[in-house]
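quick one, 689 residues, struct below
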Amino acid sequence: MAQTEKKGGLLRKSSASKKPLKEKVVLMYDEIFTTEDPSKCNPRFWEELFLMKVNLEYLEGKLEALDGEELMKIKDNINCLFQRCIQALGEEHPIRVVNALQTLCALIRGVHQKNKSTSGFDIINMLVGFDKAELCMKNLMESLDSLLCAEGSESLKSLCLKLLLCLVTVTDNISQNTILEYVMINSIFEAILQILSSPLSRREHGYDAVVLLALLVNYRKYESVNPYIVKLSIVDDEATLNGMGLVIAQALSEYNRQYKDKEEEHQTGFFSALTNMVGSMFIADADEKISVQTNEAILLALYEAVHLNRNFITVLAQSHPEMGLMTTPTSPVPTTPVTPLGTTPPSSDVISSAELPLDADVQTSNLLITFLKYSSIVMQDTKDEHRLHSGKLCLIILTCIAEDQYANAFLHDDNMNFRVNLHRMPMRHRKKAADKNLPCRPLVCAVLDLMVEFIVTHMMKEFPMDLYVRCIQIVHKLLCYQKKCRVRLHYTWRELWSALINLLKFLMSNETVLLAKHNIFTLALMVVNLFNMFITYGDTFLPTPSSYDELYYEIIRMHQNFDNLYSMVLRLSTNAGQWKEPASKVTHALVNIRAIINHFNPKIESYAAVNHISQLSEDQVLEVVRSNYDTLTLKLQDGLDQYERYSEQHKEAAFFKELVRSISINVRKNLAFNTLSQELLLKEFSTIS
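---
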């Protein structure tokens, strides 16, 4: 017997003598694509259509193949199909509902392909007709809201979310998607919150719900009042906020796990053996191969939650077991798609803190720790555009956290100590850190470690000036809190001071190249003022008097760098060039650092001469410093503990517009509506009559 094959809506026998046979659903689609009413000859046409398995590929292809004029000719039938789909969403038979949802997805995507300015018709008019648009879209949104909130099929809820994601992302720029006006008027915000607050729904649909919410919040956010922004900013339900935090934590945790797996696989491979044999000359190249696609969609959701909702700050510190250690799924777990910004949840077993008991032997984690680990990975390589965007967004999120009073309270809390294993970039001049014996410290130490790591590892020709500025601002904001609240943090401040001095050295060494692209004096001034902050207020927040002495020791030991900086800015500030004003600001900011160097250096030389010592030890220099504080005169500098607060609309609007466009394109690319096979659906809906 000849085998039957199926392709593109055609059924054909392998025998060449027979003409290809079309599926019944394809024949029915063809009837819709005529100017006649398909129900004239068959009154049961629409009832039968929604019992047929949808052929997404054929329906979308058919719509895309028509030009604007041809599409306008069958507008009445398209409107009718759209309205019939909405009616079918209220049916009792789940198969009809599933087929209606999938048909709506195909219709929206197919018609939107023709929505070019040249075709001269409006997308809303083409889908529903202007006269019925308001009522139809209201009915559609109410039906989707009911399906999402009902205790029914999880498959239906999944398709509802995918339809909504389809609706939101059909245009690259979501703010130009006029259909979303109806999603604003007929809000599904509460339905999204319900999914996030329920452990079962969250496990199945949390990822799609969070991505959907992040996108809806960005619809015309600067031009009009967006109800999703208003509602997200006032959510105070603990279960909902924790649910959202857990979904984000799981997605970031899955990324961290995949990166770690690839890293371990890479280290045990042949290339690693070769690297060990030849030395570390290939280490940078080797690391470049360790690549896991970033997830800006989930990062955007975290940003919106942190930026808009003060109550979400508490979720950052909500303790839960380390996710990578606690999940032991019995069935295969789906992994993040290889394309970036996928909408498929990275793992189906999102953990609820209420569902898993804390074990004394298991490392406790929280969303902030998971986020810091994620940041330490994506910020390693900023050459790739997605990672650069991710790195920038990570620093913007940390900026919002560093400005928040409550966040600072738990960051600096001595009773909340954690081991945070940040990823460090392999570098030729340093060994890979042993992370086994990491100390338990307040979380702010991990934030500072991340900033120091970034400063040290990104001094390169393609200098990421914007990221450096953000990095120094975060450190400054944390110091302002410590000064204000007199928090004496036990941190290895020397590592920060050393990193900052090396950054100044790099700026001077590459003055010509960098000045062609950047105003390096803005960054230099920020770095110098961090030192001024330590000099002026260090006695109020450095942990011990000896820490303050060590600050002076580092300035004196590295005085040549400050002398060179002063020479450079003095040269440029006395010329009439474009850098005169910014360079002169740095000149004035160096006054106290130069006073320290000029005061102590002669004293140290004198001490060496009197004691006949050619090279003083650190302890001897510190002794000279301690005994000569009294005669040191410093100028009081104003505004060192003041900073401009973060403002998205005025400074970051262009970045977020481009970021959301990138996310929209990738979410659309990764949407899969036919993941549910007809067999599975029939099995789930076996009660259908």
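Confidence is low (pLDDT under 50) at residues 1-7, 277-289, 324-362.
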